[in-house]
Description:
Layout: E1 7-10, E2 17-20, E3 22-29, H1 32-38, E4 43-49, E5 52-55, E6 59-61, E7 68-71, E8 78-83, E9 86-90, E10 104-106, H2 129-136
Parallel strand pairs: 3-10
Antiparallel strand pairs: 1-2, 2-5, 3-4, 4-9, 6-7, 7-8, 8-9
Amino acid sequence: MPQSEAHTGGCQCGAVRFRVTRLGRPSICHCRMCQKAFGGFFGPLVTAHNAIWTRGEPKWFQSSNAARRAFCGECGTPLAYETRFGLELAIGTFDDPTVAAPEIQVNPRDRQPFFQQLTSLPVRDEESDEWRDFMAGIHSNQHPDHDTADWPPAGAE
């Protein structure tokens, strides 16, 4: 999946942003470290060539003797994974995550036993008046899915 178009992304609060001009193979990693780092059942990652941090710098955690993981020190968003083989960025942090649709699963020995059945779970799509009112009252403080000159916007707390 090599690409030469520039792609941008960043953390939830906007303190850390990145730009990458070439993507490698996108994957989902089932290893236990990725599960814990992402707080989920897997870590969605894509190899990033020519990546630069365009706003702020992430904090790093040395998760093993061979790898370190980047996250936003302000909001905690998991951003990257780095080894001697290079940098991988968290797919969900891209402004357009569809540019890195996973193509492979890695570390299947640690895959959670219920993973294969997740897409067959029932879908709850009914909405009560109470739920609609709740959703209508939400104001997101999340950074938008595009680069901004400044963040947070002037006058925001």
